[in-house]
Design a protein that fits this description.
Order of helices and strands: EHEEHHEHEH
Number of strands: 5
Number of domains: 1
CATH topology: Rossmann fold
Protein name: Glycosyl transferase family 1
Shape: globular
Strand order of the largest sheet: 3-2-1-4-5
CATH architecture: 3-Layer(aba) Sandwich
Distance between the termini: 23 Å
Strand content: 15-25%
Keywords: Transferase
GO molecular function: transferase activity
Length: 144
């Protein structure tokens, strides 16, 4: 077993992002230099970073139905993430500006029995992530 902890970034925006964006520009500058990101889960970008492993999010009609009727959000991201997770390895999973993905990600990791090998980091670059009364309690319980 390799004792290295791998860092996976989950992004709703393709990285590198071809348009203007604040945190996407921040990550572009970071990822073009010396960085600690091993893998990115995101929609397929126009170009990719050669030194980073990708797992692209595949948006399907089935995922759209799951979101709408079964209230299963982010399944397409977790499917892409699952392709990167190897047995007996440890991971830091970073989420940027997507408060709504934190709790479903934690539930997904628990359902796969791998939550003890994954550390969730959340970074918000814009607005505070709390939208509903008492939602910050659920939010912080899901973070490591």
């Amino acid at each position: 077993m390799d004792n290295t902890i791998k860092v996976i970034l989950i992004s709703q925006a393709p990285l590198p992002f071809s348009k203007i964006g604040s945190w996407t520009t921040l990550y572009k500058n970071y990822l073009e230099g010396k960085h600690k990101i091993d893998c990115i889960v995101c929609p397929k970008p126009e170009n990719s970073y050669k030194t980073i492993q990708y797992s692209f999010v595949n948006f399907t009609f089935w995922h759209k139905l799951q979101r709408k009727f079964l209230k299963k959000k982010n399944q397409e991201y977790f499917q892409a993430l699952n392709k990167l997770i190897l047995p007996n390895e440890k991971y830091i999973i970073q989420i940027v500006d997507n408060y709504g993905m934190v709790k479903p990600l934690k539930n997904y990791l628990v359902s796969k029995g791998i939550e003890d090998r994954c550390y969730i980091q959340f970074f918000y670059h814009g607005y505070l992530p709390y939208t509903k009364k008492d939602s910050q309690e659920d939010f912080y319980e899901a973070l490591d």
